[in-house]
Amino acid sequence: MADATMQGWDERYEIYRGDLLAHCYRMLGSVQEAEDLVQETFLRAWQAADRYQPERASIRTWLHRIATNACLTALRGRTRRPLPSGLGPAGDDPYVPLIPNLDVAWLQPFPDARLGDPADAVQQRAGLRLAFIAALQLLPARQRAVLVLREVLQLPAAEVADLLGSSVASVNSGLQRARATLRATGPVLTELREPSDPDERAVVERYLAAFEAADIAALSRLLAEDVELEMPPVALWLAGRAHYREFIQRVFAMRGAGWRLQSVRANNSPALAAYVPDPVSGAMRAHSLQLFTVAGGLIRRCVTFVDPAVFDLFGLPATASAAELDREVTMRPDRPPARA
Hints:
Layout: H1 3-14, H2 17-28, H3 31-47, H4 59-74, H5 122-125, H6 130-136, H7 141-152, H8 157-164, H9 168-185, H10 200-212, H11 216-221, E1 223-231, E2 234-239, H12 241-255, E3 260-266, E4 269-277, E5 284-295, E6 298-305, H13 310-313, E7 319-320, H14 322-331
Parallel strand pairs: 1-6
Antiparallel strand pairs: 1-2, 3-4, 4-5, 5-6, 5-7
Helix pairs in contact: 2-3, 2-4, 3-4, 7-9, 8-9
């Protein structure tokens, strides 16, 4: 194949990068692994370009076939990527030691900015809510693929059967079993199509202001009575406004005030990147990424990824001055104005 032709194919693949990245992430629950498999998909597609038959499938479907099979291979022998709530019941003590469990391959948050042009990312964002991704982890690999291809990408059953080298009957049966498993975990399937709470950004911005002010009362007013708080890689999770409030009180007692929070988008949801002052240098250090579920004007769930390495996924600095963080806010049009 001539160099010019190869370049043309590469360009045609590239426009599907965000689409394929979201697909691989849904299957694997890991952003880094999803990125690796997208690159593998492009390599396989380039190597098989002379065998592509446009009358059988669009380039998008053909690339998803390659990506799905790469994901199924990668998932062989793997354990699922959970959140703390997937490992056991909620705790009842907000003051237990916070010991990371590094033996667990935890579910990772997905940076919405990786999807590229927002105008082309509406379909890609479907099925990226964290609760849905966590529920997918409960499914066997092929059921996971069937549900994502049918429910998220909305491919016809016959096309999915051809893509997986299966039958329509097998696809329909797998989809029914997958739906039954997910229904048992809660209403996660409804998150695929229902719009998010129109007030979610405003609620999270009020949470940001209250957190930076260390205003426990204001924070509490934003929480639902049955709010949940999770903190991977710490296996503990808490349920209820009282436990959440006590835990935040503990955080401020341990770390002090003067936090800076940056608004980001993760898993098609509002999130905050939290920086805490270093008591020696005074620099702001990356602490955690807090991802929220908002409904009815209240925060229903906060998954706090207490791992500074997560900041790399979002292209955020590990350290910065408070002035630098405030200046960053003013330079991003999707974020709130600079603080007074």
